[in-house]
Amino acid sequence: AISALQKELAPKLKEEQMKGKQEEAKKKAEAEAKAKEEATKKKASAAKAKAKAKAKAESEATKKGEEEEAARIAGEEAAAALKAEKAKEEEAARKLEAELEEARQKVELATKIREEEAERQRLLAEAAKSRKAEAAKGRKDKLREEREASLQGRFLSCCVSQAPDLLEVEG
Length: 171
Description:
Residues 1-92 are annotated as: Disordered. By secondary structure, the protein is mainly alpha-helical. The protein is 98% helix and 0% strand. It is rod-shaped. The mean pLDDT is 85.
């Protein structure tokens, strides 16, 4: 009984574990996404500050045209840094989405297996019930046949015991 209960509860336990893992993965993904977003903002801010400082230093040392060129270059560098960071975040998001999809598929598979096992158990129970009903019917039929045979035996025994009396009456 304990083994059967363990077998019955095992799929539920696995499903709960899968749900927990799925939620942990989701929370982890959200935390990583937030951390990366904050890191990107900090890097962008730092890159922007660095670009401004670089532009200011160059503007003091050069003419107006050179200042514009330095600012443009610094802006391009900051944009390139932001673009690279964004690409990293998108790749991480794709990986997390793939993990979530895999977890969803595992949960669906576990659910399908559990449903199939429940259907199999139901069919086995129906078959056992049918066998019990057939056995009970067989026992009833056998009992009825035994009663009929007993009654026929009594009748014949009665007839045989009455036969001498009948012969005397006719004779």
